[in-house]
Design goal:
With 452 residues, the chain is of the alpha+beta class. The chain has 15 helices and 15 strands. The chain has a six-stranded antiparallel β-sheet, with no helix packed on it. The longest helix is centred in the first third of the chain and has 26 residues.
Length: 452
């Protein structure tokens, strides 16, 4: 968006500057800003108007309007206005990674423009720094700093949503961005302008060369050792703390801003120390992942769901694929179900009723859609519980499993309405045939008592 608006702005202004009468008597800079605003709006419609593109358009529009009314363009107010506009149009965008990452990156870049750029440009005219600047040193330094700041600002959100960090993002940006800005985007714009006249072939060829270069760069960077860092899933607490740290670091002008660095460090420590689940149960109960003695997840399943398994592995910072044979290590299956060794004993996935009699005597936990016989001593996660609570994540705590549900008790939302009986908070999970119910570890979490 910035390249599109920038190219149009400077091209229109340069063309108008060729006519001295216009330059002297008319505000050609404001006219160029108006043309750039029109081009940015056209690009917004052409691109599909995703949230990230909306954010870019509103930011660009506020900047161009500021130029047209003789106000300072790049400020935190510009960012705030753009955020408010996006949230008024689509409030749900607040929890989307595109909104969070794009505004975090822009916050860092605005802070860089207002704090870092003046210092970088303040060197004496007759010095070694000035000679370096003459050869493009300042521009290279600003590109490095912009890529580094934007990459660091988006890292917490990439780790939270995608469970990945990219340590070589700066290297990829340095190699690809100059070509994107100088070749790909200008060629694309010129191709659109030349298309009605049939002269667009040359520009698409030039654009293709730039895209080929981008592909070469991405493949090279992706092949470097450690190019993809994996991050296990963590809760919203570390992300909120990291967001607060970024805000303090970007907005404050006093030395108090460095408290944001401390908050980021605390958020990082908090995120890496979040305990990982011992058992994962899919919403339909047909896929169960159990953490084995090797610390990795092992899969019991009665149905194939590659997407679900891929997401489980990504959230566990596991580089294996959904088709990896090692997922079935230690898992024994027959026509009645599967069993594997888990925390506290055997975990069973029973697909047939005849398997339950043996599982009730031996298993530390049973997942099944079948009717559980009376007198079953093992804790059971059945179809009714999955219907009420959705997918489950269990952690072994002493003699019980603490459960985190996708849909906890009492939750009633327009997009996830409560089912009958779901508005009453369930504080115990009753084990069929047991002499006493399992008691919650906390009022907010139900526990499944283990078979001691």
């Amino acid at each position: 968006m910035a390249v599109v608006a920038g190219v149009v702005f400077f091209a229109v202004r340069a063309l108008l500057a060729l006519f001295p009468a216009l330059t002297v008597g008319h505000p050609i800079k404001k006219w160029a800003a108006g043309a750039a605003l029109f081009a940015a709006a056209f690009y917004l419609l052409l691109s599909g108007a995703e949230v990230a593109t909306q954010r870019s358009f509103f930011m660009t529009a506020v900047v161009l309007i500021a130029v047209m009314v003789d106000r300072r363009a790049v400020t935190f107010r510009t960012l705030a206005v753009a955020a408010l506009i996006v949230l008024v149009i689509a409030p749900e965008a607040l929890v989307h990674p595109s909104f969070q990452m794009s505004f975090a990156a822009t916050l860092g870049l605005v802070a860089l423009v207002q704090i870092g750029m003046p210092r970088l440009m303040a060197s004496p005219d007759h010095s070694a720094t000035a000679r370096v600047a003459l050869w493009g040193g300042r521009e290279i330094a600003m590109l490095v700093m912009a890529s580094l700041v934007a990459g660091l600002a988006t890292t917490p959100y990439a780790a939270f949503h995608f469970h990945r960090v990219t340590p070589y993002g700066l290297l990829a940006n340095l190699a690809a961005m100059p070509v994107v800005s100088a070749v790909v985007m200008p060629a694309g714009l010129l191709g659109l302008l030349a298309m009605p006249f049939g002269f667009d072939g040359l520009f698409w060829w030039l654009m293709g060369l730039g895209i080929d270069w981008m592909i070469v760069v991405t493949q090279w960077v992706a092949a470097l050792p450690g190019a993809v860092g994996r991050m296990a899933a963590f809760g919203t607490g570390p992300m909120i703390l990291a967001s607060a740290g970024l805000i303090l670091l970007g907005l404050l002008r006093t030395p108090l801003r460095w408290s944001g660095v401390a908050m980021l460090l605390l958020a990082t420590i908090w995120a890496v120390r979040v305990p990982q689940p011992d058992v994962l149960v899919s919403a339909n109960g047909r896929n169960v992942a159990v953490r084995g003695g090797d610390g990795r997840l092992h899969l019991m399943r009665s149905a194939r769901d590659a997407f679900l398994v891929r997401e489980w592995l990504a959230a566990d910072a596991d580089a294996r694929t959904a088709t990896d044979a090692s997922l079935a290590d230690g898992v024994s299956c027959d026509g009645s179900g599967c069993v594997t060794q888990g925390p506290g004993g055997f975990i069973a996935l029973a697909t047939q009723a005849e398997a339950l009699e043996d599982d009730c005597e031996r298993a530390a936990l049973i997942v099944t859609a079948q009717s559980v016989p009376l007198g079953c001593a093992a804790p059971v996660i059945d179809a009714e519980r999955l219907r009420r609570h959705g997918a489950l994540m269990l952690r072994r705590t002493g003699g019980s499993f603490a459960i985190d549900a996708v849909k906890p008790d009492g939750i009633d939302r327009p997009w996830s309405p409560a089912v009958p009986g779901d508005t009453e908070s369930e504080t115990v999970l009753r084990i069929p045939g047991a002499s006493r119910p399992a008691v919650d570890a906390t009022p907010a979490e139900a526990d499944v008592q283990g078979d001691d």
